[in-house]
Each structure stands twice: as C-alpha cells, then as structure tokens.
C-alpha cells in the first residue's frame, strides 16, 4: 500500500485534493497534515473523515522535530505539499508568518523527505504546489510560461518563489524526485471568504459593500478548483521528475467585469431587482504592489499530459454560487469570531 502525505488538506484546494485521492485511490493510505489555522477547517472534509484509507494529523510544518518524527513513523512514498499561508493582503500585514510556513515549513518537509529516503528514491515523489504569482506581473500582453523568470512582488509570492527555488535546488543537489506546478487563481466550494470571489458572494448575500481595490482594472486568470485537483492528480502520477507545469484556465477576467458578472447572477438567484448588487460596488484604496495581470500559458500540461479545464467559467461560477447559497451555515461559521476582526482591520 502506498502511503501519501498531503499537507494543507483542510484548506480550500487541499480539501478537494484529499477528497479526490481518498475516494479515487482506496489502495493508498492518505495522511492529511494540517495545522488548522484560520484557513483550515475539518468541516471541509467531513464527508471522508471515516474512510478507512484516511488519517488526519494535526500539526505544524514549521515544527522540525514533529515533521521528522512523522516521516520516521510512516516513511511516506509521496508528498503533495499544499500547506501555506495563502493570502496576499495578510502577507502585507505579517510577512514573517509567510516566511515561517511557506519557506521554513517547506524546508522541513524537503529535509525530512531527503533524510528518510536516503538516496533511494525508487517510487518516491515530492510534489510542490505553487502559484503563478511567482512570475510577477504581466503588462496587457503575453502569458506566463514555465520558462518565464521569477519576479515576485508581494511577500506572499516572494515566499512561494523562495520555496519553489528550494524544491528545485533539492532536486539538483540531492537528486530528490520532485514535480512542481504553478497555478492561476482558483475558485470553488470551501474557499475562505477573504479572497475576491467568496468574499464578494458573502457580502452580496449580506448586502454589504463590495470593496474593489483601485480602479478594478486588474486581471486574473480563474480556474475551477476541481479542475486544479484533477491536474494535481495527473501531475502527481504522470508528470516527469524535475519538471514544472503551469496550470491555468485560459480564462482572463478584469476584476470589475468579474464582479459585475457575479452581481448579475446573484441578483437572479436571490430574486433581487436587476443591478441591485452592483450598487454595492465600492472602490477602495488599492493594494500596495498590486500586480496588474496574471495569465497562464497552460499548453505544456495540455500537450504532455492531456489536461485541460473540464468546465467553462460560467458553469464553474454557477456551481460555486449554488454551493455558497446552499451552505450558508458554513459561511456563517467561518465568518464569526476572528474573521470579524480581520475584516474590520482590512476594510475599515
Ligand atoms: P488555504 O489558505 O485555503 O489553505 C491552507 C491550508 O494550510 C489550511 O488548511 C491551513 O490550516 C494549512 N496550514 C497553514 N499553515 C500551516 C502550517 N504551518 N502547518 C500545517 N498546515 C498549515 O490555501 P489554498 O488556497 O487552498 O492554497 C493551497 C496551496 O495552493 C498553497 O500552497 C497556495 O500557495 C497554492 N495555490 C493557491 C492558489 C489559489 O488560488 N488559492 C492558486 C495557486 C496556488
Ligand atoms: P485575491 O482573491 O486576493 O487573489 P490574488 O491577490 O492572489 O490574485 O484577489 C484577486 C483580485 O481581486 C486581485 O486583483 C485583488 C482584487 N481584490 C479586490 O479588489 N478586493 C478585495 O477585497 C480582494 C480580497 C481582492
């Protein structure tokens, strides 16, 4: 039986990856390691918690001894590393927290894997999940490819870039078999409402202002989270060692256009009059160092592994909105307590 360690599996993307692996690969023993920070929530994976091939481990990847002991206990065959501090705005407030988890935490996992596997890498694989934000910002033209130079602008993207470099360095220096993917902005169910789409869905439901940063003319490439999970499954099993793959939706949206689309769909679903939600749009102070545009060229993963998004943006957004409308208790739970303080500080 293969032992697989997934880190960050109680978070947004991680919960979709854990669910997929537990359900699709009963022959694997799947360990989900998560510190359950504000972004981690056992409710996100409640449906699989009693599966015989699933074990949840609460722990912090920054704790070196804990990580070494965990690897010594289980000798994992594969690691899918998603645990991270993931929100740009929080990284501006507290950059060191991002260095701790995203850089030191990744280092601890790399060292534990290297020391545990002791140069015998048969059947082993370390998969590092990263972001397109490491490439910095595009102007109005062009796409990020796997050979685009790293040029991170936010403390979040700088910490992810640093971790990517260490993964690659462990591959070159110690022969660690790794794969690395850089993905565009995800959206879908279980997305913590600090990021644009779930924050705005929550605010529309509650008739609260929709805080658009700057002039709203910033562009992101959006991918449905379940398509990211499919890509991660594919790269873990069929990607080539020591390779990077970009993952994206070929789906660019200016923030303001996306917000207006969201408002229109929500008005229909909530039975509100046309343009009711658009009236909630409020232009607020811009994010410092705000990257103008991200857009991914995902042709390598398409040509080499045959992956492409399975749903259109309209389908994915519809599924996402329906999920939030049908799971308002989840939204209420995650927006009580510490979220209120965060919101007040960020948006007052
Ligand atoms: P998230 O913030 O929703 O979840 C992160 C998870 O990691 C949480 O469950 C949290 O409890 C856990 N965690 C945080 N610090 C930890 C620590 N020190 N030890 C153990 N667990 C810890 O993040 P997400 O959006 O699901 O992103 C997952 C990964 O995918 C990240 O590495 C992120 O950089 C990457 N990524 C995200 C996006 C996106 O659009 N969200 C896009 C591309 C890449
Ligand atoms: P976000 O969801 O934080 O993802 P990222 O910064 O990693 O791309 O933000 C997506 C875009 O939406 C980004 O251009 C910033 C913008 N944005 C707002 O205009 N208002 C908000 O309240 C938030 C959270 C984001």
UniProtKB/TrEMBL annotation:
Q: Name one GO molecular function term.
A: dTDP-glucose 4,6-dehydratase activity
| Residue span, NAD(P)-binding domain | 5-320
Q: Which domain of life is it from?
A: Bacteria
- EC number(s) of the enzyme? 4.2.1.46
> Pfam families in the record, alphabetically?
GDP_Man_Dehyd
The cofactors it requires, by name, are: NAD(+)
Presence of keyword NAD:
yes
The enzyme's main class, written as a single word, is lyase
User: Biological process GO terms, please?
Assistant: nucleotide-sugar metabolic process
> Keywords for this entry?
Lyase, NAD
Q: Which SUPFAM superfamilies match?
A: NAD(P)-binding Rossmann-fold domains
The catalysed reaction is: dTDP-alpha-D-glucose = dTDP-4-dehydro-6-deoxy-alpha-D-glucose + H2O
Q: Does the keyword Metal-binding apply?
A: no
Classification via PANTHER family: DTDP-D-GLUCOSE 4,6-DEHYDRATASE-RELATED (PTHR43000)
The entry's family comment says: Belongs to the NAD(P)-dependent epimerase/dehydratase family. dTDP-glucose dehydratase subfamily.
Q: Tell me what this protein is called.
A: dTDP-glucose 4,6-dehydratase
